[in-house]
Amino acid sequence: MNTSMRVNTKPNTRRRIVSVLLALSASAVSVPAATAQEPSGAMGAPAPISWGACPKAEPPSPDPSPRAQCATVEVPVDWSKPEGPKVGIFVARHRATDPARRIGVLMSNPGGPGASGADDALYADDPVEGYDPAMLQRFDMVGFDPRGIGRSQNADCDDTIAASIPARPHNAAEFERLRTLNGRLAESCLKRTGPLAAHMDGESVARDMDAIRAALGEREISFLGHSYGTFLGERYARLFPNRLRALALDSAMDPDRPDAERYLTDGSVTIDSALKRLAAWCEKNADCALAGQDLTAVTDELFARADAGKLREPGPNGPTQTKVDADKLSDFLTRALGHWNPQEAAQQLAALHTGKGEVNWTPAGADLKSRLVLCRDYDFRIRDFAQYRAIRERVAKAAPHVRYNAQALDIVLGCQGWTMPPKPQPARAKGDLPPVLVVNATHDMASPLPGAQRMARAFPKASLFTMDVVGHWLYRRGETEEAMRVIDAYLTKPKG
After folding, report:
1. Are the beta carbons of 182 and 421 closer than 8 angstroms?
2. Structural domains counted in the chain
3. Does 206 map to a domain?
């Protein structure tokens, strides 16, 4: 889901992830447009895309690859009303470098939701974050900014409302205040963005993907989705099975629309298991800041002190006067363990334990654009505070050393009171799917392994490749390059 937490399996290194987003709005992009019609073909084929030059990036970001081409494909805001208002989808392409051996189009999405998908094509040949040269020879790399994201009419909401929403409601009054303010926030998104805000769900994006395919003049596509992009891949497979040549899903989301409790439990158990993995690492490494101590017992003691109001933020010379409550401790554990730098996580836990040192705090809260997407794709609604408290208690029993996954709870709470209700799951269309590849880490806090297992079971023919690591998004050079090789081999020969 959130792609900000990458895999790092080495304790003394933190991977440097290069982010190369173009600092341009959709209104600043001037490229030819093709109008796409209803994917069923009932309204005829769309005009072919007329490619143009891509806009330059603002410094210090590098300019796109000189091989990249850009365009805008127009699609209906509401796919149930194909003749209604349109929205432009920003699309980028990096042509295959060996046309004689070209397989076809590889469309991709980097997840988020809220990340720019066009960058996958704009920087396809980046030596650090791009594709292997052998893949660039065989595929036209096509990426797009999903509707309401980046250069595809970026959605806008009232941030001042979000700032006043209780992050962790502790009683019925706070829970109702959270619901009320979430509702006002949703209405502000509709007011500022227009009807598009109510149509940023995965099904609508999957239909946009097929409109792009049709405008490209391709009979079928291959698709590589990461994190939330795997949900888009599943939706495309559900709607257009005959138009997929290959489907690779990296760090897969649960396609079965889990309720709030199951979603929160899966993510929390994953964080709890990552803490136990950290404890095992600490037992074997003399340079661990908590060497010789039971790390899970240390964490349990920290929660006991937080519950008693006796845990303080550490300082350079000892404990400060700032209290650390149990929610802030769970937030810290989620972020520290999700990034997986064992030495750094142990040092910060030791600082909390002794009161001397430094801790990197990350504020709670779900991204606003992710609410416009996830609150429509999933049904995380909770009836009232009593049900919320009961869920929290059961989750804490399942993950006793961390209590909950803060990122998952941010998403669940962000959907309470949302005035745009969950969208029904689309029916599965008839048609034959190719074999599907699902790839996942065993300890992924953003897309836990149980969800990836359900994703694999959702297809008639699918294989699940796992790596015993802590982290998210395996399709990367470095520590998880094996997954990259497995995916590349599958994409070049999906039926082999």
Report:
1. no
2. 1
3. yes
Which residues are bridge partners to 143 per DSSP? 92, 108
The bridge status of strand 68-76 relative to strand 139-144 is unpaired
> Digits of tens for pLDDT over the chain (496 positions)?
643 333 443 333 222 222 222 333 333 333 455 544 444 434 456 778 999 999 998 888 899 999 999 999 999 999 999 999 999 999 999 999 999 999 999 999 999 898 899 999 999 999 999 999 999 999 999 999 999 999 999 999 999 999 899 999 999 999 999 999 999 999 999 999 999 999 999 999 999 999 999 999 999 999 999 999 999 999 999 999 999 999 999 999 999 999 999 999 999 999 999 999 999 999 999 999 999 999 999 999 999 999 999 999 999 999 999 999 999 999 999 999 988 999 999 999 999 999 999 999 987 666 788 999 999 999 999 999 999 999 999 999 999 999 999 999 999 999 999 999 999 999 999 999 999 999 999 999 999 999 999 999 999 999 999 999 998 999 998 889 999 999 999 999 976 3
Other C-beta atoms lying within 10 Å of the C-beta of residue 101: 11
**CATH value at residue 61:** 3.40.50.1820
**Residue 253 identity (one-letter amino acid):** M
- Is residue 486 situated within a structural domain? yes
Q: How far apart are CA 448 and CA 452, in angstroms?
A: 7
The pTM of this model reads: 0.91
Q: Which amino acid is at 409?
A: L
- In three-state secondary structure terms, 290 is coil
Q: Which domain holds residue 67?
A: 26-153+202-256+432-492
Q: Residue 291 carries which side chain, given as an amino acid letter?
A: A
Report the C-alpha dihedral over residues 232, 233, 239, 240, rounded to 10 degrees: 140
SS3 303: helix
CA dist., res. 60 & res. 256, Å (int): 41
Indicate the pairing of strand 68-76 with strand 86-94: antiparallel
Residue 179 lies in a domain: no
List all residues 6 or more positions away from 248 whose beta carbon is below 8 Å from its beta carbon.
Answer: 222, 223, 224, 225, 233, 436, 437, 439, 487, 490, 491
333/270 Cα distance (integer angstroms): 12
Can you tell me the distance from the alpha carbon of 306 to that of 300, in angstroms, rounded to the nearest whole number? 10
In a domain, 455, yes or no: yes
Report the first-to-last Cα separation within the chain, whole angstroms: 30
Q: Which of 166, 245, 198 is CA-nearest to residue 87?
A: 198
